[in-house]
Amino acid sequence: MPIPLMPGSPLKYDNEYKRHGTCNIFAAVEPKAGRHFIEVTDRRSKADFAIFIRDMVEMEYKEATKVRIVLDNLNTHFEKSFYETFPHKQVTRLLKRIQFVYTPKHASWLNMAEIVINMMENECLNRNIKSRKLLENELQAWTYQNNAERRKIKWSFTREKADKKLSKYYVS
Fold it and tell me: What does each C-alpha distance from 18 to 21, 129, 131, 167 come to in angstroms?
């Protein structure tokens, strides 16, 4: 849309961005197996997080006795989210099978889900997506392709390198 000319000012154009709503994307990855799990939700609430983790553990890892999940310190990423969402017996049963591993506060870049989100942004979400349904379809196709290819994350950052780099954040 052209902006009206003013004396001494060249012709200008304005581009209006039309927002079609917002939503949240949960992402999880099993880096050595090349398995990706993506879910779109209306919000990023404690209940949404707890449901995403429960569904992933109970459907995708139903045979596993222990599922280790690396998390950053987002305000929803805590056991309290489960207690606020599910009955106590269900939480106890579920949390027996989960081991949460938290990345240091200033090291969320260690979280491999962040790598997956970056991949997703570059390969799938780098444009205006006009509807939630289209977003879900695009992410489903992206996830299917990555899982079919068993697209893994080659992690070269060793525990020793992490200890050295992050030692200033450790409490002795």
Answer: 9, 11, 12, 45
Q: Percent helix, strand and coil across the chain, each rounded to 5?
A: 40, 15, 40
**Cβ distance 143 to 38 under 8 Å?**
yes
pTM recorded for the entire structure: 0.79
The candidate with the shortest Cα–Cα distance to 53, out of 34, 31, 80, 32, is: 80
Own/partner pairs, 10-16, CB within 8 angstroms, 24+ separation: none
d(CA 161, CA 19): 43
DSSP letter (8 states) at residue 5: P
> How do residues 138-172 score in pLDDT, each as one tens digit?
999 999 999 999 999 887 777 788 778 777 766 65
- DSSP H helices in the chain: 46-55, 79-83, 88-95, 112-123, 132-148, 159-166
Label residue 11 by pLDDT band (50, 70, 90): confident
Q: Show the domains of the chain with their CATH numbers.
A: 21-124+131-148 (3.30.420)
